[in-house]
Every structure is written in structure tokens, then in C-alpha cells.
From TrEMBL, chains A, B:
Keyword Kinase: yes
Family per similarity comment: Belongs to the ROK (NagC/XylR) family.
Name the UniProt record assigns to this protein: Sugar kinase of the NBD/HSP70 family, may contain an N-terminal HTH domain
UniProt superkingdom: Bacteria
Organism in which the protein naturally occurs: Nocardioides scoriae
A molecular function (GO) term: kinase activity
Pfam short name (any one): ROK
Alphabetical UniProt keywords: Kinase, Transferase
Gene3D superfamilies in the cross-refs: 3.30.420.40, Winged helix-like DNA-binding domain superfamily/Winged helix DNA-binding domain
Amino acid sequence: MAATRRRGTGTNQEAVRRHNLATLLGHVHHSGGVSRAQLTERMGLNRSTIGDLVRELDELAVVSQSVPEAGLHPRAGAGRPSLDVNPDPDSVFVLAVQLGVDSMDVARVGLGGGVLERISRPTPSDRDPEVVVDVVVEMLRQLLRSAEPGSRLVGIAAAVPGVVNDATGLVRFAPNLGWSDVSFSPLLASRIGLRVPVRLGNDAELGALAEHIRGAGRHKSHLIFLSCDVGVGGGVIVEGLPMRGASGYAGEVGHQRFDNGGARCRCGNTGCWETEIGSHAVAAAVGCPDDEIDRLPEYLQPGTRVPPELRRLGRSLGVGLGGLVNVFNPEVVILGGVLRWVFPLVRDDVLDALDAWALEAPAREAQIVLPWLGGDSVIVGAAELAFTDLLADPVGVLARAEGALSTVMGA
Amino acid sequence: MAATRRRGTGTNQEAVRRHNLATLLGHVHHSGGVSRAQLTERMGLNRSTIGDLVRELDELAVVSQSVPEAGLHPRAGAGRPSLDVNPDPDSVFVLAVQLGVDSMDVARVGLGGGVLERISRPTPSDRDPEVVVDVVVEMLRQLLRSAEPGSRLVGIAAAVPGVVNDATGLVRFAPNLGWSDVSFSPLLASRIGLRVPVRLGNDAELGALAEHIRGAGRHKSHLIFLSCDVGVGGGVIVEGLPMRGASGYAGEVGHQRFDNGGARCRCGNTGCWETEIGSHAVAAAVGCPDDEIDRLPEYLQPGTRVPPELRRLGRSLGVGLGGLVNVFNPEVVILGGVLRWVFPLVRDDVLDALDAWALEAPAREAQIVLPWLGGDSVIVGAAELAFTDLLADPVGVLARAEGALSTVMGA
């Protein structure tokens, strides 16, 4: 029926239909399930148009419809209940990669944003890009082997701790990996040999995206996600949109001078905020040897005795957060990475320092919170990036995705 | 004719016409004069619609049309030359106020953005808000007396060095004026007794706006305007729009920690960047006594011998700018206030420190420049804010503006 409707209609009407189809799929993906009545209201279209669009997505096997459980939609009123439209995670999925200094994670994420499977391995010690990519490809193939037969891969995306250029697939500078000008996406695309786009994002920016869509930043237009491990980066959402800067390099909040007499930073300078709050500083504060830094959370369990060095670090965190609050006037700041363990232990030190530092007006607005997605913010954000193309043009991307998997499954 | 067309047309068509009228007036105001052919191209409307819209604005006496001088439009081709549409600065104007710690400026600015007249006076020494407003009102009345008879005042706006809330007219916190929670706009509105809106903006934000519309930031989507006098603030444009933050307080880049062992700041903290590069630091570096700080430019004339303290200040400026470049990845950073005098003297120190500090990728994008509007950026920005309502709804605002002046002119 969709094909019949398409034939003979003008270009504009076709463009409108494709736009509506994409928008509706976005609602279903981001909400994880939504009733047809809600879609009618949110999209401002009539019931029969919504019905047609849902039917088309159903025929494409990306959504399924179900009768809602009683009581879930109390405002639906009398009459036939509105059907729920749910994303089908087993039918369409992406592969997400998170490159860390110490470990690498890959995940298979279904439509709707759920992590279906996840694998973690230590980062190869010399961090040679070719070796890293080979290991990543091996991990991704492992994920593909457990995908449902007939399910479709629609994208791959990687989160990198550094400045990247998605358009060219280039990692411009990732000091903590020791990378500069690494042509990452083309390399990964050629090694994995699948006909799906490979995209690239900064880890903090992707963390912000995920928390904005499904986490502590939902329904907030101004937020900062602080990605804090060996390196410290910021993902900033301004007016509901990622702040990318002129060429996508914005958000390097860890590389601002914090202390004239501070420590040497991996970026080459002295006294960056990163040297005060990054995971090496945390390790030093709690007496964790540098070569055991992947075990750092063990030193930061709830109830642990808090050494004065960690409280001092908490105050440096608060002072720096206060500066960011003055600069960005955010509604919420989300503390990712190792700060998920640090913040609960030194919360009062952080908030006291922040309150003393930030100007009163913006300080009153800003909540300081942990990521709702826990340790998954960045990899879920990479998955969101990988879903971008599908959500812009479901019909086109699904047409190209058919058969993409059979190539690798046969390999 | 406009009235005839209006009667009987549906609401939607009327809304479209009003939108087009406002958009066209915006083009004329921002460009300072544009041909009808260019308007046709930029707005994507046909020649006769553009002709009708221009005629309506002409009848409202806000624009005038003229035959272009030969050779100015080489691409117009053969045939009758396209008429130029020019803003009429003597017919419609706004009043702009710039409150400084040491001096206060007011200006009458005509449609098209030109400063028609400007008055400057020292800020009353105790900076009592009521006294400040009384002096400002006196200055504004002086400007009004020299306005063309029959010309229409369509708005008043003030730039303040601090965090403000335009919606409520409240100056939340201006530490260098010693103000907190001053209800500025309502006070000014009641004292001047004119039926025009009084609006309020942060000085750096308004400087950024003016440079974005008519200065060093034209056609740039990512820029920072650094307003640097006693206080240091930033106006940031992200994706072509002012970065206001959750409640309009964003941009306080001077109140980030810069040096743990630094000096006490007026905001109450220690080691803010403001203490390193603000005009008091500049005065100390060049041996200008604090009570002669309004004469600071005399100490910073081209060709002056540059003391090592000023070179050190230049390096602190460069390090801080490097941090901002890392955070915002801007296309251009515009140095306003006292930096207009400092930067030419220590340019190499600033740029060397910036290059050493900023990450290479964003550093390569960022130009560091002086404001094209010289010392007028902030007050021209205030004028742009005052023009906002006119540019959103010319017909409605002009209808209300008729007679507004007669009130005060008769007083």
C-alpha cells in the first residue's frame, strides 16, 4: 500500500511523508515505546496519518504494536484503547565502541536504546592504532555472531577520548591514547568490511547526548556531562543541541589553566584542571598504585574512610565546576567516569566549594548529579550516533542495510 | 492599499505577511542598505511581493528607496536597475545605555545601526542605583531633545557589567558596581515616563551581538567577545545564536579559577582570571594609579615602552584565551574593553602563550582580533537589543510608538 501511495505523488508530498516517518521513528526510539494517541498529540498529525506511518514502519519490521496493559494510559478515556508502538530491538541494531586509555568496550544496542550485549577488553598496551582497530574488529565480530538471524545492522560508531572529526573520520588529537591524526573510521570500515557507515565522536560529547536523550538530562536544554578518567572532557548541550564549536572540537574543559603552580599535563602544559581531578590524581589521593588504576573503583567504595587528599580533590572539583557553572549557566552537570565513585564520598566538599565559587544566580540553577545510565552513558551515546542515519531516513537506510550482515556472517 | 489587502484575508496569510515584513526590515537594518534584487534573492520571494513589502515599509516611513549609483551593482545585468532600499535613521531610533564602573554612556542609534549622537559622563561615585538612573534619564532626555521632530523612539536598552534578567528587568549581580538584585528596567521606565519597552542585557553578550551583526564576527557562527574592563565577561555566540544559559547568566568567563595562589577578586574568591587581566591588573602593570584608571589608555599608546609586567599579563591573557579556545572551538575571539589597547602592545606574548596552551586543532581555527566597532561594540549591541521588538513586529511597534515622544518632548 505504501508503494501505491508513493507512485504519482509529488516530490514535496513524498518529502513530507519521509520526514514524518523519520520523526515518528525517532519518538518511538527515544521513548522506548509510546501510544498512538501520544504520537498523534506530539506530532500534531491526525489519527489516520499516524496509523499509516506506524503501519509502514511495522511492515519494515522496525516497530511492533501491542495492546497496552490496563491502567498504563489512564488519560486515554473510554472507548478502544490506543495501541502502543514499540521499537523492535532484535530487528534493527547498531554497534557501539568506546575506546578508553585502559580498556575498550563494544556493545550491540537495539532500536530503543537498550544494550543487548557488551564486551570489554584491556586496551593493547602500546595503543598502536592498527592493533587497537584489529582487536576492536574482533570484538565486533563476536557481537555480530550472537545477533538474531535476519536482524539488520544499520550503523557503527566509536567514542574516543580526544578531539575528533566525524566528517573525515579522523582522530585529530587524543593525548591520553598517544594518537594524533589517526584516520580511525576509514581504517575500521575497511577492516570490518561491512557496508554500513562508521562514525566517530568525542566521548564526553556522546555521554552528554545519551544522558540528554535518556538520562539525567532528559527535558533539560542546558547541561554539561563531565567525562573524567585519565583525561577530563566536557560534553555540553546548549539550547538542546550539542555544542560542537566551529569544527567539532569544543568541550575540552579539562585543558583550562587551573593552577599556575600545578602539575604537568599530558597535553604538554602545566596546571590544567585535568591534572587536579583526573583518575591519576584520584589514584594518588587514595593510594592506588598507577599500574592498578583499572581497580580504582575498589578504593572508592561507599563507606571507605576518606583521606584528606581526596577531600582536597573534591574541593578542586567543586571550584572547577563553579567556574563551568559561571560560564555555561547549566540546569544540570552530570559527573561521569571516575567521578561516579568520587562524588558520593566527598559530596559536601564538592558542593561547598562550588557554592563558594560560583556566582549565586547561576549556582541556584545548577544541579550536580550522577549519570542515570551509570557507566553506560558514553557507549549508549555512541550507539545514538550510530542510529543517526536510520533516524534521518529509515526507508533508505533499511534498504541499504538488507544483506549487509550476510557478508560478515558468511565470513 | 495595505489596509485593503489586510481586510478579509485569513489569519495565516496575515501572519505570513507580517513575518515577511519583519524579515525584510531586518535585512535592511542589518545591511544598512540593500537592493530589491538582493532582497528577492535572500528572501526567496518574487519581485512583486518584495515590491509590495518595501512599499508598505516606505509608507510607514522607516525605509527609503533610491536609484543605485552606477557601478555599485555590477551583477544586476541589463535593463532597469534594481532600486536600493535604505533604512531611515532619522525616522526611527532607539536609545542605548552602557553602564560602566567608571563611566556611563548613552547613545541615540538610528535604524541601520549608526550612532547618531553619544554622551558620556563619569559614573556617580557611590553608584547608588537611584542616583545612577536619575543621571542616565537626564542624559537620555538630552539626546531626545536633539532628535528630529516627528522621529519615533521604538525602544530603550541598557548594557550592564553583570548577570541580568531581561524578562524581569533585574540586575541580579554586578559585583563591580556593587549591585545585587537591582530592579533596573522598571526603575528607568518609571523615571523616564515614556511608553516604550526598556530592556536589559549583559555588556559582553551585547558586544558579541553587535560584532556578530556588524563587526568582526559577521558571517561567523562561533565567536567569543571578551569584555574586559574592571570586570571580565564573555559574550559567546554558538551556532549563530547567543549562548544565554538556563536563565541568561552564561558567559562569566572571568570568574573561573586561574591561579590557586592568585589575588582576591571582587566576587569574593581568589585567583579568578579577572584578577590577572582586568583593568586594575593592567593599571598595576603599567604604573597607572588606581584613581586615574579612566586615563589608562594614555599609558597604552602605540610605541609605548612595554614593561615586563605587561608582557607577563599578555601571557596570562594568552593562556586564558587558550583555555577558552579549547572549551568553545570558536572561529574568532574579539578582544574588547581595555584589551583594545593592551593587545597591540603585547600581541606576540598573547599569541605565543595561546599557541602553547590551546590544543592544536581548535587553535588553528581561532583568530584573535580587535572589535571592528572599536569602543562602540557594547553600546551598539544595546541598541540592537532595543531594536528587537521593532524587528519582530514593525507595524505593531510603530503604531504604539506614535506619540510616545510627544510626552517627553512636551515635558
